[in-house]
Fold:
Amino acid sequence: MLKNEKILITGPASQVAFPIARELAKSNRVYGLARFSNAKDRANLEAVGVTCVAADLAQDSFEQVPDDFTYVLNFAVLKSDSFDRDLAANAEGPGRLMYRCRKAKAWLHCSSGGVYQLNGHQLLKETDPLGDNHRNTMPTYSISKIAAEVMARFGARQWNIPTTIARLSVPYGNNGGWPAYHLEAMLAGSPVPVHVDKPSVYNPIYEDDYIAHIPKLLAVASVPATVTNWGGSIQVSIEEWCACIGRLIGVEPKFVYTDRTLASIPMDLTRMHELIGGTRVHWHDGMRRMIRALHPELSLRE
Structure:
């Protein structure tokens, strides 16, 4: 991992970024930028050694933000369903922050598989068409994520900031994630929504793996920006991981098939494997670890 660096992380209290911030803070000076409207988020970050900087990506000037970070990790995302608000926070804000922190050695922008035009069960490559695949669940998400990528590309060229744009699949772990929502649904006896174009296939990545990838993603940053898919090396469907969770907790998963949920976003990880290597935690083991962390009271069936 990185050592003795000064690192800024946006959205540091989020499901994905908090484990990263916690790990990096062990050997680096880590700052977290967010609005911190929830005092508990600030307290949790400060407890693991993160210095909190209150700022609103949608409107602040960032004069209160130091300009001498060696690395910046952008994990912030606003999903308010307001295009004006979300484009300001997710695209304009990171652009202004790139200018403020233009001395950085590298910038990591966390994007999403949500930027792709859906293509059934075909593997999606970095060069494939982009589209609005989250419209039926989060109306502003895909478009604001695409806009954020454009801003990151512009910032890299305009201010000569080596940048990596990593399109993240399904992150999960001890801090939650989409499989964790399915776990809770199954424990409550509720059906799990799955798209009618079944099976719904993704590349879930456990937190140990995405934490380990951070320095590698920064090392391949470039001008123009490096763009790569980012996920677990093994493709897994929602049906498969729910069946695995069900075996462990002794609950048979129930599914409801609908077109009002996300369809498959299977990623071609060839470029990721070439740039930073694969993942190590098998998804079976990752699901088991997640359940143990979130529900230690359960006796798992091995």
In short: The longest strand covers residues 106-112. Residues 172 and 178 are 7 Å apart (CA to CA).
